[in-house]
């Protein structure tokens, strides 16, 4: 690891405390009763794989939902100066199957690989009206597009998904590439041509466990009020962008576990060790999660956390 990366905060000063679980995380265990390890291994578990940035794959039995896939990750110069071309081979290699693809907002680092993944798998691209415009731009048929204004239960096989209207956080005092998309943008797009549109926090109810995905650095308390989740995928940038971001999210949603996301620079190759986003203070983020009463599960790129569903 280059020393200069440590100096400017791109690399951790000590190894990151990744959670590599030997056996599934179990709600019953968290509540104080013992879970037989053999039973835990034998139960049909829910798995959540982290794709970097705000991307996740949630799988249980035959159902697979993908959130905000962004595997292509062009380098910083290419990202700033060139059209962004999804890496179809890389997408196929790492996400061979998807039933539905949920998009939190239409910025490139949340949506770029969504349409190609849908083309490869036949999955629906589900998100805001802006997400629909991006899907149209990429050539997806109407049959694979589902737009929502939020607060709507959408059946995804035996699961239910619901987008809760949210806000895009300010990064260094301003919202990057603000606005909406009412017509299809150029495709492949340049970074600035993808405007965020309506931001949605996705609640994925698998029938046994609920997973909430907050992929932006802000949210609306009233939208989260009354919701509960077992697992919260939470954007680490938010801690710098919104007062009491971690504490409020956890006190509203009462998750047992929090999987941090959006803590890397997203301009390193997917299969390389990621660089830390300077200023995020990932270890401080983990401490705040613990102080708020949840267990952080810092997951390496392409790492998987497994949960028992009983
Ligand atoms: Zn964004």
TrEMBL record:
<dbReference type="InterPro" id="IPR036866">
    <property type="entry name" value="RibonucZ/Hydroxyglut_hydro"/>
</dbReference>
<dbReference type="InterPro" id="IPR050114">
    <property type="entry name" value="UPF0173_UPF0282_UlaG_hydrolase"/>
</dbReference>
<dbReference type="Pfam" id="PF13483">
    <property type="entry name" value="Lactamase_B_3"/>
</dbReference>
<protein>
    <submittedName>
        <fullName>MBL fold metallo-hydrolase</fullName>
    </submittedName>
</protein>
């Amino acid at each position: 690891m280059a020393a200069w990366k440590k100096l400017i905060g791109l690399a951790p000063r000590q190894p990151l405390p990744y959670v590599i679980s030997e056996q599934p995380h179990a709600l019953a265990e968290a509540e104080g009763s013992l879970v037989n390890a053999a039973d835990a291994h034998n139960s049909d578990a829910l798995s959540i794989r982290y794709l970097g940035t705000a991307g996740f794959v949630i799988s249980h039995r035959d159902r697979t939902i993908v959130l905000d896939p962004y595997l292509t990750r062009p380098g910083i110069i290419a990202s700033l100066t060139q059209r962004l071309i999804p890496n179809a081979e890389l997408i196929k290699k790492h996400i061979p199957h998807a039933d539905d693809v949920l998009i939190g907002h239409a910025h490139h680092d949340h949506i770029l690989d969504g349409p190609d993944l849908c083309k490869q798998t036949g999955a629906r691209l589900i998100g805001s009206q802006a997400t629909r415009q991006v899907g149209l731009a990429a050539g997806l048929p109407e049959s694979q597009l589902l737009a929502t204004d939020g607060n709507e239960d959408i059946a995804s096989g035996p699961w239910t998904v619901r987008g809760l209207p949210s806000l895009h956080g300010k990064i260094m005092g301003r919202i990057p590439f603000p606005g909406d998309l009412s017509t299809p943008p150029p495709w492949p797009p340049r970074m600035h041509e993808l405007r965020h549109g309506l931001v949605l926090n996705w609640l994925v109810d698998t029938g046994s466990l609920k997973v909430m995905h907050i992929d932006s650095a802000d949210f609306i308390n009233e939208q989260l009020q009354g919701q509960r989740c077992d697992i919260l995928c939470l954007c680490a940038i938010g801690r710098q962008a919104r007062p009491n971001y971690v504490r409020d999210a956890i006190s509203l949603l009462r998750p047992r576990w929090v999987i941090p996301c959006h803590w890397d620079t997203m301009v390193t190759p997917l299969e390389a060790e990621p660089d830390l986003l300077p200023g995020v203070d990932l270890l401080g983020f983990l401490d705040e999660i613990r102080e708020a009463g949840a267990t952080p599960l810092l997951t390496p790129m392409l790492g998987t956390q497994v949960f028992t569903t009983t």
